[in-house]
Specification:
The protein is an alpha/beta fold and 255 residues long. Helix content is 32%, strand content 20%.
Length: 255
């Protein structure tokens, strides 16, 4: 089966539309979304509705849980708290009900999907040691699975238990070993790039091939949506400061 993998949509409708259009042209058979449908962006109702109508199978991320008042705000950056307050006021009854029904972990076929890690939606999994540890738990957590799909870091990543980190350039092949996949963020780039791009992945779970995509979208329209709500551009593009290391970025990033 060809799976379309998404994460961290963050209420960015234009980025989501670009991703869904591309995945449809790629012939994906199922959409899996690793959380953070809302938070930060200007169009939470529209994004959740589009995903629901597309039949996407989603889990809750830390920002979804914050908007639903199921996580305390203390661990979140001020901008994240501000956007969450806005989204609570914007969410329709139907969209809130849809979010309320979502699980935090989803098992489908040979894939186990959650947002941050098997232990917490707020954990950034960025180190190979931690990735290997989580993959080692798959047989006990969900027998028959060999793929762990995570989001939260906003960074594309492919790690497998034999080859370790595999460069995420175009279409790549993982070994037959258990693997961790992160498709990157649809709606909030945290890359040092002049123009933010939407990220996702296509995973062929039979061949073990993964195509990592970085897509252009109507950034100007996304920013106009933010401005209507008094939100800054960092809601769609929050690149790391140059002095931060990879680990420091994971710990110090907007949450």
């Amino acid at each position: 089966m060809r799976l379309g993998l998404l994460s961290d949509v963050h209420a960015n409708l234009q980025a989501l539309q670009a991703v869904l259009g591309t995945l449809e042209r790629r012939g994906v058979e199922e959409l899996l979304v690793a959380g953070d449908l809302v938070g930060y962006g200007g169009q939470p109702n529209e994004c959740v509705t589009v995903l629901a109508e597309a039949g996407a199978r989603c889990v809750l991320g830390n920002h979804d849980l914050l908007v639903l008042d199921r996580l305390p705000p203390t661990g979140f950056h001020a901008l994240a708290r501000r956007a969450a307050d806005l989204h609570r006021s914007l969410l329709s009854t139907d969209v809130r009900s849809f979010l309320d029904t979502l699980p935090t972990t989803l098992h489908t076929g040979r894939v186990l999907m959650t947002h941050g890690s098997l232990d917490s939606p707020e954990e950034y999994v960025t180190e190979e040691r931690r990735a290997r540890e989580l993959l080692g738990r798959l047989p006990a957590e969900t027998p028959g699975t060999d793929t762990l799909v995570l989001g939260h870091t906003h960074r594309q990543w492919l790690f497998d238990a034999v080859a370790s980190t595999i460069p995420t350039m175009g279409t790549v092949a993982a070994s037959c070993a258990p693997r961790l996949l992160n498709p990157g963020s649809v709606g909030q780039s945290r890359e040092r790039e002049r123009r933010p791009r939407a990220r996702c992945a296509v995973y062929d779970d039979t061949a073990g091939n993964v195509e990592f995509l970085q897509l252009d979208y109507d950034v100007a329209a996304s920013r106009r949506s933010l401005r209507r709500h008094g939100l800054p551009d960092r809601c769609v593009h929050a690149p790391p400061r140059l002095r931060w290391t990879a680990v420091g970025w994971a710990r110090g990033a907007l949450r």
